[in-house]
Specification:
This protein has a single domain, classed as Vaccinia Virus protein VP39 (Rossmann fold, 3-Layer(aba) Sandwich), CATH 3.40.50. Strand 6 (about 160-165), helix 8 (about 170-185) and strand 7 (about 190-200) form a beta-alpha-beta unit. It has helices at about 15-30, 55-60, 65-70, 80-85, 100-105, 125-130, 145-150, 170-185, 200-215, 250-265, and strands at about 35-40, 45-50, 95-100, 115, 135-140, 160-165, 190-200, 220-225, 235-245, 270-280. The chain is α/β, with parallel strands linked by helices. The structure holds S-adenosylmethionine. S-adenosylmethionine binds next to helix 7.
Length: about 280
């Protein structure tokens, strides 16, 4: 079942949080010269036209990236992320939203490698086309979870793995934990970032408990809620669970998340959270 299309949601509040975290992790890894692998298991189409029928139908980006991208009080923690957004919007108005592969492409260096997988029959060729001329990169139409076995450990023993499934299958909540375990077994020093939506809080509590039970240490949870938890349909919050976060990430997100919350949710409802699921 591949009915999810990220083009309906690109640039929404969840993407803003996800890609802020993604860019801060990449910038931290760049502090050492040694190359690293960026592995994007559920990569999407790469580029999203915000004037498309899909984006216009939901208008989600209007309450996400559109609220922050031209603010003049932007915290420094958003600089790298915004440099990527600006690189795809040269005309001064917001036309495209760069997904995680394009943000990585903009921020990674000559010596780094990108490996991306996307299963959707329409989005996978679009992503491949984006990277035709980039010889640091490999794009496959393949299962993302399999990559956690086949691509790890990376050649240079440095890596950032972004796991961003659509959760249209209930089994994704377990599959991500199993996938992380598989990856971690092979590559325990990698930085793993798992995106999650809060639709039913209970699902996230269960997933977090299962992660705790793996025995993996150094797991940081970052969350931004735009509404209180609810039993009704729809995403009220989203977050990133980061294993082996760069040492500055906790502080950086504790600074920037309240700002993002203020700007993204002017009504002041919801919450932010940066806390350890398991510390050292
Ligand atoms: N990471 C992207 C970004 O931040 O721009 C967004 C990805 S979107 C949330 C999830 C994507 O996973 C969808 O495009 C979907 O087609 C794809 N997908 C679903 N199941 C997959 C699987 N088993 N392996 C790889 N991709 C999958």
């Amino acid at each position: 079942m591949l009915s999810y299309r990220h083009s309906f949601h690109a640039g929404n509040h969840a993407d803003v949080v996800k890609h802020t975290v993604q860019s801060l992790i990449i910038e931290a890894l760049k502090e050492k010269e040694k190359p690293f692998l960026y592995l994007d298991t559920h990569a999407g189409a790469g580029r999203y036209f915000l004037g498309s029928e899909h984006a216009e139908k939901t208008g989600e980006y209007l309450e996400g990236i559109a609220r922050i991208w031209q603010r003049d009080d932007m915290p420094v923690e958003l600089e790298a992320y915004m440099s990527a957004v600006n690189a795809y919007n040269k005309g001064g108005y917001l036309k495209y939203y760069p997904g995680s592969p394009l943000i990585a492409r903009h921020l990674l260096r000559e010596q780094d490698q990108l490996h991306m997988t996307e299963l959707h029959p329409t989005d996978s060729p679009l992503l491949r086309h984006e990277f035709l001329k980039d010889d640091r990169s490999k794009v496959l139409r393949a299962d993302g979870y399999q990559q956690l076995k086949s691509q790890l450990p990376p050649q240079y023993r440095r890596g950032f793995i972004l796991i961003d499934p659509p959760y249209e299958l209930k089994t994704d909540y377990q599959a991500v934990v199993q996938g992380i375990q598989e990856g971690y077994k092979r590559f325990a020093t990698g930085v793993y970032a798992l995106w999650y939506p809060v639709v039913l809080r209970q699902q996230i509590k269960r997933m977090v408990k299962e992660l705790e039970e793996t025995g993996i240490r150094r797991i940081l949870q970052i969350e931004l809620a735009v509404q209180p938890d609810s039993d009704r349909r729809g995403m009220t919050a989203s977050g990133m669970i980061v294993i082996n976060p760069p040492w500055k990430l906790e502080q950086q997100m504790s600074t920037v998340l309240p700002w993002l919350h203020r700007v993204l949710v002017p009504e002041g409802i919801g919450h932010t959270k940066v806390s350890w699921i398991t510390p050292e």
